[in-house]
Amino acid sequence: xxxxxxxxxxxxxxxxxxxxxxxxxxxxxxxxxxxxxxxxxxxxxxxxxxxxxxxxxxxxxxxxxxx
Length: 67
Prior knowledge:
This protein is an all-alpha fold.
């Protein structure tokens, strides 16, 4: 799975509204990518990480803004 390091993004070291906005959007994008990846795993790989296919389907179906 692809995962960005939020600390390397522009504005990450700055305080304020722009920093929070960039961080929030970055986390939402990462969350969506991880959920898409989870949705593509087969039953064997899901068992390896302790999830059932139904649990993975539910997680993958969540919108990006839901943690």
